[in-house]
């Protein structure tokens, strides 16, 4: 189903954006999502080619030429990166980015893998596995899920969603990358049609430095960066039933001074550090996972909007009341 219309993109409410609504435009042009899985069914396949004919300057002729060809070259399937024990974290991230690049950016106007942001992490990791098997071109949101999957085995690397809303020529544009943090430095993984709007090496000292790097890239394309949305660190447990917190902080860049933006990003960095030591909910058993649906957002993971009027307070440690051990006769009760 086509969820967006051509022209100026109106502001969407938070519920729509949580379902990935903001990702259904590619450079201001609406695109379809393959919701029928793989292999692609006949209806989706024909719809994709009709869409190509509409959006490409020579779309109809191009489609006939490709579909009628009998000697198309075989596309090589990229290999999922493997590492030696001595491979450093920056080298591993570069290898992951190289793999994402080799899959190539999807220009067809149909996203092949359906990504629902409200799904639990374990379900999204299953989709990432399918991406590695099918080796099809991907868009930016798919690259974020794939990046999480490929870095799950790197406990020293923290990952978080980092999305941008820019404005150009009357249109709003949305993009997302996977922010990474390791060894006191920030970087990013992802895919884009623009070389400087995806991978960033692990060399930025603060989150502010990383955001400014992307803002400078947007200026190079005459885009004005309007909003930055930053999520929390993502669990390394591929079987976790947690939902990814996509937008823990929402910053109106064009309404904040440079110093105010820096302070808000520092606050968010502290919030992410506080989450590291918190225990994640237990993963379900294998039998339970097979019959489990997507959990609803609970009260423990609220969406917090950031503005100049209402700001998120710095994280404070919650002091728990100590119960005397004699109440439990020296035993711990586990539920």
Overview of this protein structure:
This protein has nine helices and ten strands. Strand 6 and strand 7 (185-189) form a beta hairpin. By secondary structure, it is of the alpha+beta class. Helix 2 crosses helix 3, helix 4 (89-103) packs antiparallel against helix 6 and helix 5 (121-134) crosses helix 6. The chain starts with 13 loop residues before the first helix and ends in a 45-residue tail after the last helix. A six-stranded antiparallel β-sheet has the order 8-7-6-5-9-10, sandwiched between helices. It has a two-stranded antiparallel sheet with strand order 1-2. It has a two-stranded parallel ribbon with strand order 3-4. The radius of gyration is 22 Å and the shape is globular. This is Tubulinyl-Tyr carboxypeptidase 1.
Question: What's the short version?
Answer:
One of its GO terms (biological process) is regulation of angiogenesis. The protein is built from nine helices and ten strands. The chain is α+β, with helices and mostly antiparallel strands.
Features:
335 residues; six-stranded antiparallel β-sheet; two-stranded antiparallel ribbon; 9 helices
Assign a percent range to the helix content: 25-40%
Give the strand line-up of the largest sheet. 8-7-6-5-9-10
Query: Which band does the percent of strand residues land in?
Result: 15-25%
Q: Oligomerization state of this entry? A: single chain
Would you identify the regions where 5 or more consecutive residues have pLDDT less than 50? 1-23, 291-311, 313-335
Total beta strands: 10
Tally the helices: what do you get? 9
Over the alpha carbons, how many angstroms does the gyration radius reach?
Answer: 22 Å
Region (Disordered): 1-28, 267-335
Keywords: Carboxypeptidase, Hydrolase, Protease
GO cellular component, one term: cytoplasm
Organism: Xyrichtys novacula (Pearly razorfish)
